[in-house]
């Protein structure tokens, strides 16, 4: 899962050896302006799903500001976007070594650890993020805790945190992708616990916000568990129509053919 990016004012002191050899030092204001420009450009590339372009800018930035926690954090995001989890983890850890209270980096480190199956480590990091009263997006940490607990076979704790995330959005916050994922994941969890009626309530809400094949497939499963074959067929059909060649589309087709 990616958090909202923010621009920090922290920056490391960087000395350009070539300029020192020439007998001059870069104006700190110029250096800070260059750093800000690099970071903003890299953030824009990451938000536009262009991690390779971001990486090009960030590797250059790292040479100039090797002890900049934000540069390390963004490098982690870029490598994570390229599915290079070990490199992403290393840069998130670098960011935390430079700024131990950097909850954005700690949250993203936990996401990588979940992807690597290191659930206990991820949960420990997310508990620290959860305790940070200044962290601007605590629902991200809650959603990731739910995911970690679910993946580690602790459904009751997962359900607790998924419901906490939904409570956040019920206070009027904008319904973003985390909201949709939470509804879908809670629905899947409830289906696993043989609670199809509850699951369907959340899955139908998710489907009203996002018309995604994965959501419709789970709706089909819920309807089938309730004995509603007509609506199950309709839901599986929608999943197949949305993504006929994907794995989920093929699963939906197989489920529909079996009805």
Q: What does this molecule look like?
A:
It is a single chain. This protein has a domain at 174-259: Tetratricopeptide repeat domain (Serine Threonine Protein Phosphatase 5, Tetratricopeptide repeat), CATH 1.25.40. Helix content is 73%, strand content 0%. It has 14 helices and no strands. The protein has helices spanning 17-21, 28-47, 51-64, 69-81, 85-98, 103-115, 119-130, 138-151, 155-170, 177-192, 196-209, 213-225, 229-242, 247-257.
Brief account:
By secondary structure, this protein is mostly helical.
Please specify the SSE layout and strand pairing.
Layout: H1 17-21, H2 28-47, H3 51-64, H4 69-81, H5 85-98, H6 103-115, H7 119-130, H8 138-151, H9 155-170, H10 177-192, H11 196-209, H12 213-225, H13 229-242, H14 247-257
Helix pairs in contact: 2-3, 2-4, 3-4, 4-5, 4-6, 5-6, 6-7, 6-8, 7-8, 8-9, 8-10, 9-10, 10-11, 10-12, 11-12, 12-13, 12-14, 13-14
Silhouette: elongated
> What is the CATH superfamily classification of the domain at 174-259?
Tetratricopeptide repeat domain
What is the tally of beta strands? 0
Low-confidence residue ranges: 1-26
Count up the helices: 14
Question: What string gives the helices and strands in order?
Answer: HHHHHHHHHHHHHH
Mean pLDDT equals 89
Largest sheet descriptor = none
What is the share of helical residues?
over 70%
Radius of gyration: 22 Å
Structural class: mainly alpha
Measured distance between first and last alpha carbons: 34 Å
- What's the CATH topology name of the domain at 174-259? Serine Threonine Protein Phosphatase 5, Tetratricopeptide repeat
By CATH, the architecture of the domain at 174-259 is named Alpha Horseshoe
Broad CATH class of the domain at 174-259: Mainly Alpha
């Amino acid at each position: 899962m990616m958090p909202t990016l923010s621009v920090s004012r922290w920056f490391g002191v960087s000395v350009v050896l070539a300029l020192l050899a020439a007998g001059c030092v870069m104006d700190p204001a110029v250096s800070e302006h260059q750093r800000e420009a690099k970071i903003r450009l890299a953030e824009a590339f990451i938000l536009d799903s262009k991690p390779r372009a971001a990486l090009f800018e960030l590797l250059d930035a790292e040479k100039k500001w090797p002890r900049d926690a934000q540069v390390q954090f963004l490098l982690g995001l870029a490598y994570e976007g390229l599915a290079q989890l070990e490199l992403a983890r290393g840069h998130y850890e670098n960011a935390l070594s430079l700024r131990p209270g950097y909850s954005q980096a700690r949250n993203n480190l936990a996401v990588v650890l979940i992807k690597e199956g290191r659930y206990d480590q991820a949960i420990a990091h997310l508990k620290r993020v959860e305790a940070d009263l200044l962290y601007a997006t605590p629902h991200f940490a809650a959603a990731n805790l739910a995911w970690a607990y679910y993946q580690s076979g602790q459904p009751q704790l997962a359900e607790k945190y998924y419901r906490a995330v939904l409570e956040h959005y019920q206070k009027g916050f904008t319904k973003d992708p985390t909201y949709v994922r939470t509804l879908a994941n809670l629905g899947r969890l409830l289906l696993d616990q043989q609670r199809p009626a509850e699951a369907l309530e959340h899955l139908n809400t998710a489907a009203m916000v996002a018309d995604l094949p994965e959501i419709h497939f789970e709706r089909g499963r819920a309807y089938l568990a309730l004995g509603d074959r007509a609506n199950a067929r309709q839901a599986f059909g929608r999943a197949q129509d949305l993504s006929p060649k994907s794995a989920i589309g093929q699963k939906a087709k197989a489920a529909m053919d079996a009805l």
